[in-house]
Design brief:
The chain is α/β, with parallel strands linked by helices. About 35% of the residues lie in helices and about 25% in strands.
């Protein structure tokens, strides 16, 4: 375990909360929950998506939106929109909202400070990256200053030990899981627009173990955007993180989850 990670754990439990445009709205309480939990002594890190807004801006530029295995196919022109929306508009909107709560928040992307290192995942997906390394020292320094980092899932491509300078689109769920594992986070929470992971009968599973997760993904019960969430939860859980998928539309869902009062799916 790196010294930065040990220091982060010793000074308060780290919570990585992944939020997306589908759960943020006028009546959403997630950011208020993050502020309250930090004031209770936790150390929150926010990782965000922005898929619906990206699709909206792609349509404005007459660019196609296409997904494969829950991942957005990203060509050169689409990448420009992805980076602008994620690292620009969405990231700064969240920072502004946290600032309105008088919280000290700093927005950055995975490309800043070498936070996320990635390689091309699949040539058929275009400029979509697979994370191969996470540099947490900059995050730990921010957490030490009681700052809430707000992270956009954009990375720099690396070939071996050298960066190429190419930006890559990273699935936000995957980024959240990798960051939680690298930080040694106590919690990884995905705030979604569904109640949790469903069984073959359509009921919400309170607990999903790895073998059952593989079976449900293989049979198509877990599909689309839920696949990277479950995979990220499993990866983080292997590092000792409590990984949960909850309904972010519910009032104070994040606080209630930390307090053990929220329904959803624990994965791992």
């Amino acid at each position: 375990m790196r010294s930065e990670e040990q220091g982060a754990r010793s000074q308060g439990e780290i919570l990585v909360a992944k939020i997306g445009g589908s759960t943020l709205g006028k009546h959403d309480t997630t950011l208020a929950d993050i502020v309250e939990l930090r004031r209770r002594g936790m150390r929150p890190v926010v990782v965000h998506g922005g898929g619906s807004l990206i699709s909206e801006w792609l349509a404005r530029h007459n660019l196609e939106t296409r997904f494969e295995r829950g991942l957005r196919v990203t060509d050169e022109e689409s990448l420009k929109v992805v980076v602008a929306v994620l690292a620009g508009l969405v990231n700064k909107q969240i920072v502004a909202a946290l600032t309105a709560f008088r919280e000290n928040a700093i927005g950055l992307s995975g490309a800043d400070g070498g936070l996320l290192r990635a390689r091309l995942l699949d040539p058929g997906l275009g400029f979509v990256g697979e994370i191969v390394g996470v540099e947490v020292s900059s995050l730990v320094r921010l957490l030490d200053r009681s700052v809430v980092p707000v992270i956009a899932p954009v990375a720099v491509q690396w070939e071996g030990e050298r960066p190429t300078g190419q930006l890559l689109n990273i699935n936000a769920d995957t980024a959240a899981g990798a960051i939680a594992a690298a930080l040694g986070a106590r919690w990884l929470a995905f705030l979604t627009d569904v109640r949790g992971v469903q069984s073959t009968q359509g009921d919400v599973l309170s607990h999903l173990v790895p073998d059952d997760a593989e079976s449900l993904m293989g049979s198509g019960v877990i599909e689309g955007g839920m696949i990277p969430k479950v995979e990220a939860c499993l990866a983080a859980a292997r590092s000792g993180c409590q990984s949960v998928i909850i309904d972010g539309r519910e009032e104070h869902a994040l606080i209630r989850t930390i307090e053990g009062r929220m329904s959803g799916t624990i994965v791992g």
